[in-house]
Amino acid sequence: MRTRTIALFAAILLSTGIAAPSASADTTATRTLSGSITRPLLADGTRPSTECWVDLVPVGWYSGAYESAYLTANGCSAYGFNNVGSGEYTVQVVPATAATTYADTWLGDTPFPDRAQTVTVESESVSGLDIELLPAGGISGTLAVPSSGAAPTGPLAAYAYLIDEETGATTLADWAEAASDGTYAMGRVPAGRYTVEFADAGNPPTLRDAFLGGAAAIDSATVFDVTAGAVTGNIDGGPIPLERTVQRLAGPDRFATSAAIARRFAPGVPVVYLANGLNWPDALSAGPAAAHQDGVLLLTRQDVLPSVIAAELERLAPERIVVVGGPAAVSDAVYAQVAEAAPTVTRVWGADRYATSRAIIRDAFGERIPSRSIVISTGRAFPDALSGGALAALWDSPLLLIDGRASELNPETRSFLWGTNFLGMAIIGGEAAVTTWLQDQLEHFTNYSSSERIGGADRYDTNRRVVERFPAWAPEAGAAIVANGTGFADALGGVALSGSTRAPLVLTPSRCIPRASLEAALAARAMDWQLLGGTASLDARVEALTAC
């Protein structure tokens, strides 16, 4: 069983010669990407035929396959995509095969997307991208509910995560729901080391996910090996009674709260962004930039570095500090003081908030955005940009601020966007924040001349729609970050924290959590809640997860 998210679904039989749709607005001549598919001899001496899907996936893209082709059993031996736009790609073959035969395989004959071979398409076609399918094994077991506690709201399910033994990274290899007798089976998993997550698949769940061995986190889970051609059985378990936890990250003021958030990061971080904590524009784009580099955002006064921030910089011992904004935002005196805390200190700024946003993105992401996706928000107000910053951090993408009420995109923004050929563009907020006219202009910088608007009736409704984009089924899922939506200071540091934990950032009034936002976070499997700020920002009713 496999859930498939495809932005452009091209159900085509390549053997018939029907071409996939054009993949890029910059395509002026037919460029193809092609290769062969080999089915190796299995341990039992057979080489079974199989139908298969072939997915063309741009490197770093956040939304699944870019183009997809279906091949019959006789045709699952070669593939080709026509009219491929310039860019960097990889390929995945997904066999629609019987159990314990062949597994999903990426270009480079690997089960790990992060290890997939990539290819750059420029002016010429690319061929010889051959893939040998990986032999598969299986996993089976029995799922059960705890003897005490609530009944599950949905079916029980098991999620198998393949572990990269060199890096410790995991990838979801397969999943299965329990049959009526509680048993489950997965039959297309590549050989390797695994753990399994057991879940109540209800929405929201009434039981808490648990990993093999009863662990609450994947780092503590029991692991086991799967061999090609064999089923590893007795992988039994189930979800555990639901116990939600609530923790505050707070201090007596915004700077102490900023330091408390930063203490969630271990010393030796690659980078710390330091921004003015009494004004918000410069810090908005800095949060996703910090997340992109596994870094932290800290706040300072313009003319004085708070002692709690100085102490936190000493603890973090970053490799680099980026001071955000000009001397009017962070003084030269503060710059000189933080220069003693890291080997490298850089000031990044521009003539205004929009130029500073572009400068931050160029410094962190380079001239060409690796993920080929971007989040755009107005720079006239902060609420939508806070929500957009968390989404950008999830996508490993930048947050670009524009003047959402301007009559035209200015030349500097056009120049910045030119040539990236974005695959994904999300505009945060309704038409009052970013006009439809500007959206139309922005879409010229995307592959399909299109974008996605994520906006609601107010700041909380917009935030709820962003929270809904966070994946429920990921080994990191299970947390939510809550910040006051009428202020900006506490939430700014929450963007980088959201990026490191892949937890949604939920904006709320001070007295309660909007019901729709609470439900969206629960649907994203939020069990552990981290509140940013003291009781003046989020009172006891928010701590009790009270809906309004």
TrEMBL record:
InterPro entries: Bact_Sporulation_Assoc, Cell_wall-bd_2. Keywords: Signal. The keyword Signal applies. It holds the Pfam family CW_binding_2. It comes from Agromyces luteolus. Gene3D superfamilies: 3.40.50.12090. Residues 1-25 form the signal peptide. The keyword RNA-binding does not apply. The lineage of its organism: Bacteria, Bacillati, Actinomycetota, Actinomycetes, Micrococcales. It comes from the Bacteria. This is Cell wall-binding repeat-containing protein.
